Amino acid sequence: MPRRFPIRAKLTVGALAPLFVAFFICSLTGLYIIDAKITSQAQEKVRTDLNSAREAYRNELHHIDELLELTADNPFAALSISSRNRPAISSLLTPLLHKKHLDILTAVDKKGRVLFRAHNPARFGDTPVDTYFIDQALRGKTVTGTTVLSPEQLAAEKDELTAQARIDVVTTPHSRPRQSSVERAGMVMVSAAPVLDSAGRVAGALYCAELLNNNNDLVDKIKDTVYEGVKFKGQDVGTATLFLGDTRIATNVHASDGRRAIGTQLSAEVYNRVILENRKWVGRAFVVNDWYLTAYEPIVGLRGEVIGSLYVGMLEKQYSALKNNVNTILGVVLFISSLIGLAVSGVIGTHLATPIKELEQLTRRVTLGERDLHIDVRSADELGDLAGGFNQMTRALAHRESEITMLNRSLEQKVLRRTAQLEEKNALLLETQADLAKAEKLADLGVIAAGVAHEINNPLAVIRGNIEFLEMCLPPDHANREEVGIISQQVERIAKIVGNLQVFARQKALRQGQVDIHELLDGILGQIGHQVPMDAITVVREYASDLAMIRGDGDQLRQVFTNLILNAVQAMGSKGVLTLTTKGVAPLDGCEVSVSDTGPGIGPGHLKKIFTPFFTTKDTGSGLGLSISYGIIKDHGGDIKVSSVEGKGTTFKVTIP
């Protein structure tokens, strides 16, 4: 049958159609990359720049705080303020003005009265009003942060500060309406620190501050650090600004006349988001007279209120120019590629018709399962290489299929091995997590126990003293003498419980030394009879003959094993077998000590809680013995475990490196 549409035409059309589809898709993709990706990356850079600006701001606060704390910790400062020696305070504070540009540097006594102002020495004796940071410093707290001072507060510290703080507000497009056209308050970086006398009491306080109104040093430092002076057509690419409320008080954004745009306002949309809602703003915003990619962050005052914002931004024009350039380059490349593809597709269509058809038929046979098929190589070009590659492919398919079968079997074996290893690691991880949780719980309970013991000791001492006095006052044959004795016994019992709490809470350092475990255990067995009857108890010693000396705290280890042996004897009651077993632990060069009894055992429900502080099944116990023992063994880098069978007995195993 005659062919209505030859393979050559099909190849040509087939080559051209994808080319034009690719042209359309690439155009859309390019526009998407330009409009979305570049803008997104630019906004992300602005967000990162805001983080850098925040760190620069915090570093400035840290420098002020560090300088003030060094001065406040000076013993000479405490002596001078306590004695109200103004010449001495002056000699201490005046040199600080040369180390750091401080607009305010003042010392007050413990009642808040001004002793010395470095910038206004003639004014002293007054009490600054509405100064949260001074109140906190006089309570013993060091305070550093940002706050707003009224014109009266600024004038009291330095007359020139009111003029520096004054800013004429300039209305800008998109800004919110404002009642006052002048900003007189000042935003300051402030730090206040207590001055303690030799007894640790607050003798007074020092506070210093740097006024940010019309002070462009910080914003210029941020711009130079973050943007390194990069310009676009003579205009700075990056800018930084400090806002008090909605008013620029320090900035390197320039107005149309070339001056810094101090006094211009924040747009209403950004003001509502940053100042009123206390949230960051990252996005496109109109700044003074141009569009910027911006990031704003609230500046929070000492009391947690939003008093202003920190801004960084980059000109949007440079990214618009970048988009246009990329669009132009992309269009030229795609147009040239289309012309070249049109020419090449016609040539390729002519040469590929016959070989491609033959290859198509052979590939169908391969699909049906035939192997080792062969096609004649008629040319030494890519088609010839394709034919040769097809021949190699058919020969390799059978070989690859057998290899894949072998690899599948090997992979299954590896998966099984890895699964087993993973299960083992998961079990170890769960055990480690349980140990960490137990250690954290013991640490928290230790803090609580220390506080409880401390609070109980004070009233307990009063009760004990009154009981002793009452015993001295009552004659021996008095009718209430017995009740007083019972009260005294219960007070002693409380004192013993408080003592256990203090032992549990105290993190006592180990006194390392050489310890003979066998000698330690024998010593405990020799003395345990003074605490509990041992007549009906059979002691079995299964000591390892080659057990080496270990390094540890002998007193604390004696406490651990005394507690374990005493618990075992008490559990057995009047009759039983106490078995002490020791053996070496080669990897750790340590030992393992087992304490076993033939008592009634411990139920599964109690076994999980046995090392929990204050858990006990005894009528008279405090429940701290095993918790203390657990902490001591963990301090030695060891481990303590328990196993029990109800009706047969309990075994504690202690491993010590």
Structure characterization notes:
This protein has 657 residues and is of the alpha+beta class. 52% of the residues lie in helices and 20% in strands. It contains 16 helices and 21 strands. The chain has a five-stranded antiparallel beta sheet, sandwiched between helices. Strands 11-10-14-13-12 form a five-stranded antiparallel beta sheet. A five-stranded mixed beta sheet has the order 16-18-19-21-20, with helices on one face. Helix 1 (7-72) crosses helix 10 (316-367) and helix 10 packs across helix 11. The radius of gyration is 42 Å and the shape is flat. The model has no long low-confidence stretch (mean pLDDT 81). This is histidine kinase.
Task: Label this structure with key terms.
alpha+beta; histidine kinase; 52% helix; membrane; Sig_transdc_His_kin-like_C; 5-stranded antiparallel β-sheet; 16 helices; transmembrane helix; 657 residues
